[in-house]
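Summary for the steering committee. One of the milestones for this cycle was to obtain a three-dimensional model of the protein with benzoic acid bound, which we needed before selecting residues for the alanine scan. The sequence and ligand used are listed below.
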Amino acid sequence: MTPKNSWDAGLYQDKHAFVWQYGEDLLKLLNPEVGELILDLGCGTGQLTEKIAQFGTEVWGIDSAATMIAQAKQNYPHLRFDVADARNFRVDKPVDAVFSNATLHWVKEAEAAIACIHQALKSGGRFVAEFGGKGNVQHILTALHHALQTLGISNLQAMNPWYFPSIGEYATILEAQGFDVIYANLFDRPTLLTEGEAGMANWIQMFAGAFLTELSAEQQTQVIDAVEKSLQTKLYHKGTWTADYRRIRIVAIKN
Ligand code: BEZ
């Protein structure tokens, strides 16, 4: 089970809308055309799936979290959504494009996911994705590591649920599996966290829960307090936290 499988879909939808709001930009790169068949890989609660459908496409949303798919079906009952794993999904018929926003950094087995994406596409079909890239949330990760080490926890690599590749690393895997990479960009996207001074604690609980699962409630509070303290000067300004996101965007064509 990936950490994402246990997500609270209601919390995600209500408090983390920035995930798909930023994703709207990615739709421009996807440039959906009427009648196209498009797979939304890691669709979450379906907001971007619906936007893709509005272009007159036939779109299918998949996500590994049953809670997300249940919410997506409730939000958009006219669309098709299914629970499926990025590492081993299959499509009924080849698609024109695979779109993925803010998902593939949860998939450490990148080769397996790319093999599935390749198999899902028609020849000449496109893969358009955005996810956390090399250096993503580096300040937060460093602070978390220090706080956990203070508690004597050192197996941090094993706890880390994320895969944040460089352009070179990801493009190499894509090319090895039969894609031509026609666009790649790694860029900083400082992301304002809502909810004022609680923003960082809420973000850690939502996204970085994998680092806390072995801890008692008291230790969790200790870690979050320590992270907040060490990030205060870098990421907290005028009552608002900012997460040091760095994204990678990729467009690749199946050759
Ligand atoms: C995300 O799912 O958007 C995310 C996960 C980890 C770090 C940053 C963002």
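Key point for the committee: The radius of gyration is 18 Å.
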